[in-house]
């Protein structure tokens, strides 16, 4: 349960870092709209964070000649704590480079358990973690841009 709360808090923090600047640039947005975007964004970001180990495990299974045995790669509170810090630092102008470095650190934390659970080796595990993180990041960025476009189109429509 604590793990789910940590992932949701990290997702909400990451979403706040993306949505609050949007709300500031568009002063006409209602508070309920911003709150709705924040909650939806937090759930999406939390789901992306939760899917990172699963996606990494799946990629490792594709690389190996035989599927890996075991329960798979999962988050632990020790691995999520730096992710929380990275999400807090996601606010614009508070350190995008540090934010990226923390995500790399979190990814490196996933590499060890993946390499130990599979025969893919450290570099192969690092590649799987990086590829999974990049793929999920690109997917969530596409969703963000779609939401921004939809929001912008709704803002331009005349109110009757």
Written overview of the protein:
The chain has one domain (2-156). 79% of the residues lie in helices and 0% in strands. It is built from 5 helices and no strands. The longest helix is centred in the last third of the chain and has 36 residues, at 121-156.
Brief rundown of the structure:
This protein is mainly alpha-helical. It has one domain (2-156). The chain has helices at 2-25, 31-63, 77-88, 96-117, 121-156.
Write the layout of secondary structure elements.
Blueprint (H helix, E strand, L loop, with lengths): L1 H24 L5 H33 L13 H12 L7 H22 L3 H36 L4
Helix pairs in contact: 1-2, 1-3, 2-5, 3-4, 4-5
Helix content: over 70%
Structural class: mainly alpha
Strand segment count: 0
Order of helices and strands: HHHHH
The total count of helices amounts to 5
Distance between the termini: 46 Å
Rg over CA atoms, rounded to whole Å, is 18 Å
Mean of pLDDT: 78
Main sheet summary: none
Count of distinct structural domains: 1
Low-confidence runs (pLDDT<50, min 5 residues)? none
Cα shape: elongated
Sheet-strand content, in percent, reads under 5%
Summarize this structure as a short list of keywords or feature phrases.
single chain, 160 residues, mainly alpha, 5 helices, elongated
């Amino acid at each position: 349960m604590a793990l789910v709360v940590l992932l949701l808090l990290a997702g909400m923090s990451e979403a706040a870092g993306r949505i609050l600047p949007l709300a500031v640039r568009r002063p006409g947005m209602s508070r309920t709209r911003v709150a709705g975007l924040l909650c939806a964004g937090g759930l999406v970001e939390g789901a992306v964070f939760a899917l990172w180990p699963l996606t990494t495990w799946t990629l490792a299974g594709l690389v190996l000649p035989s599927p890996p045995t075991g329960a798979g790669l999962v988050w632990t509170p020790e691995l999520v704590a730096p992710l929380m810090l990275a999400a807090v630092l996601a606010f614009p102008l508070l350190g995008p480079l540090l934010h990226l470095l923390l995500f790399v650190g979190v990814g490196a934390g996933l590499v060890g358990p993946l390499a130990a659970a599979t025969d893919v080796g450290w570099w192969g595990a690092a590649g799987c973690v990086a590829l999974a993180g990049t793929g999920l990041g690109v997917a969530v960025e596409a969703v963000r841009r779609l939401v921004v476009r939809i929001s912008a189109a709704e803002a331009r429509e005349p109110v009757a």
